[in-house]
Amino acid sequence: MPRYSIIIPVFNRPVEIEELLASLTQQSFRDFEVVLVEDGSEKTCRTIAEYYSKQLRLRYFFKENEGQGYARNYGYKRAKGEVFIVFDSDCLIPPNYLQEINSYLNLYQVDAFGGPDAALDSFTPIQRAISHTMTSFLTTGGIRGSNKQIGPYHPRSFNMGITKKVFQKTGGYRIPYMGEDLEFSIRIITAGFKTVFIPNAFVYHKRRTNLIQFYKQINYFGRARVNLTRFHPSHLKILHLFPLIFIIGFICVVILSLLNHNLGFFGVKCYIIYLFLIAAEALLKLKSLKAALYTPLTTLIQMSGYAVGFTHEYIQKFRGINPNKKYIDLY
């Protein structure tokens, strides 16, 4: 039996899967299997899976579309390893990833873990700008998928590992999407399991490839944060309101400046300084002027997309519309 089972859900992304599987063939630690779960795709990766099954211990499954959370559960139930690791299909895995995980787990007894994400130099300037915006400490992205948070670490599904015991006790994902990974992480911690952040266990996360796709993804994240309050109300913190406050403030200072109000001009200067600092930080870290110049725009997209999604889902919640009911009934 392999020590690790890597579970990968995929929906209509054969190109991403090919790149991800290619990166897994380069792992220095080899005691692992890959469980690839095709979640009802129209554009399947069956042929790609057959090709890489010659280089990897890979099993391919096709199931009806239910969402990524349930696709991961499907993979968990069929995994043969002692530890289950989940990646998003838009990730690339560094060659030493599993070696880092294995070395850590040989030293420490933990039940669930995760690591950070990063961007390759070969990513497009927009992708690198998006990655920086999503991971910068100057934005709320610094909290997502890092150990810079208050309280226990909550692993996220783009780079998340659990022991078989965790799955057996928790039953895995309770809902298929819209905050499913955080909901699962909260229940893992509530059940008494130990979670840790492993800094060297990073993945290269491609995220979205253009600004429209990025906006849609961030809008979804805002909705997911509200959806999480339907299960765990206490996990909504002041920090999660920052994008909404940021956008409301931005609109107010623009209106005031158009009315020739001094407070508006002062506020606009503050926003410009903030965006300049993000761009400067990106230039220092990314060493790319073009990527750095995109970061003010990607930051505004991050804040506005999240704020709109957050507001939309809170209105839905206020109206009594619960998107989870049909799934919870099946759980």
Classify the beta-strand content into a percent band. 5-15%
Count of the separate structural domains: 2
What sequence of helices (H) and strands (E) makes up the elements? Answer: EHEHEHEEHEEHEHHEEHHHHH
Q: What is the general shape?
A: globular
- Briefly, what CATH class of the largest domain? Alpha Beta
C-alpha Rg (nearest Å) = 20 Å
Strand order of the largest sheet: 3-2-1-4-8-6-9
CATH architecture term of the largest domain: Alpha-Beta Complex
Number-wise, the strands total: 10
* Biggest sheet overview: 7 strands, mixed
Word description of this protein:
This protein has 331 residues and is an alpha/beta fold. It folds into 2 domains: 4-219, Spore Coat Polysaccharide Biosynthesis Protein SpsA, Chain A (Alpha-Beta Complex), CATH 3.90.550; 229-328, no CATH class. The chain contains 12 helices and 10 strands. A 7-stranded mixed β-sheet has the order 3-2-1-4-8-6-9, with helices on both faces. A 3-stranded mixed β-sheet has the order 5-10-7. α5 (125-135) packs across α11 and α9 (242-258) packs across α10 (262-286). The radius of gyration is 20 Å and the shape is globular. It starts with a strand and ends with a helix. The mean pLDDT is 93.
